[in-house]
Amino acid sequence: MNKRSKSIRPYQSPDIPVPPLRYDIQMVPVDHNGNRYIVFHDPLNYAAPDLALSPEITQLFSLFDGRTTLTSLYKKFLRKSDLSLSDLTGFVSHLDQNRVLHSAFYKHYAEETESAFEQSSQRMPTCAGTCYPNNKQELLKYLDDAFADATENVSSTPLKGLYAPHIDYRVGMNTYVEGFSRIKNLKPDRIVVIGTSHYAGYYSTFYDNRPFIFSDKSYFTPLGELQVPADITKQTSSLRADLFGISMHDRAHRVEHSIELHAVLCQYLWGNDVEFVPILVNSLEETLYAETGNQAKQLQNMAGFIRSLDKGNTLFLISGDQAHIGRKFGDQKSAHDLLNETKTFDKTYLNAAINGDAAALHRLIKGCSDKYKICGFPPLSLFLNAFPEARGTIFNYDFWDETEQDSGVTFASVGFRV
Known about the structure:
CATH superfamily of the largest domain: LigB-like
Low-confidence stretches: 1-5
Order of helices and strands: EEEHHHEHEHEHEEEHHEHEHHEEHHHEE
CATH class of the largest domain: Alpha Beta
CATH topology of the largest domain: Protocatechuate 4,5-dioxygenase, Chain B
Number of strands: 15
Strand content: 15-25%
Mean pLDDT: 94
Largest sheet: 9 strands, mixed
Radius of gyration: 23 Å
CATH architecture of the largest domain: 3-Layer(aba) Sandwich
Distance between the termini: 50 Å
């Protein structure tokens, strides 16, 4: 934390209102050595990663409404507890210092984190050590083992694009391999990765009316550094943001996994000398309901720019999963109860995709009000609008059964020829 941050300190006085728990983090129960704890899942990685609390103490969070002082809460609810007011003040300060409360301290920390990222020239990995090994040699062995049985899995006709998942390697590696093994014999000079943006919604002031998010940062992984060519950055910067719907504010890339998981495989197959162009796509919901509206025009303009990036030996990677179903994703039924109808929808959706029919994809998503929450729709829509002549082949289709959450995710790999 820099000197400027020291003027904004974590919660200190019991005579000011206690900030509420942040609305954008989840409390997750875990068992460790026979004991139950509550840990915090923060999608934006602001909260300290090692904070664990007893389930009993987290019951206090229901009292934190952002309007009531800790002194008042203590007098009304906690005077007869084993905790003193001083203990409680220290506890709230500890929570705030770990960025789990929606406070001035947290908001300042978050803005400094984002500003520092935007000013940096590097994008560091966020999935290393979880989705894949963070040690280079261990990662190479992990990928060698994964691709060992796919040595002959090469497409006879060169592919221009690959639609592949961004689900955790530990869940969907077979589908990654089924797709990437078909293109490993290519020698692209440039790789354009069009990925789903899962986090742009957290930065609505930056991305309102700007669904396409570019980054000129070097992408680092344990396998090295992929660089965005300066001429691409110059071209992208010259686009009119209102006409192309593009934003050069790249904070949505900071914790995004959709491009990172493809970047690792690019480095494994082609090294770090290839040109790398990362573009995230936020929701294209407006295009479903205003087919000649502003966002639809932005989509067409951006599709033209994407096409212009093809210098012949360019590979396009479309990073997206399929359906997200079950109680974890807001459905009233479990994923197993929804699986048959989901597979039927996915089949129709993927058939439209391999026929290069972007309009049919839009009709399908609109017709069901995006019931199946297909996160790969925005990047795939952009690619198919850029290359309407593309025709595809489905290589693999799979389902992650997250039984303990009554939920699941479908995903596929599809190769496209132009």
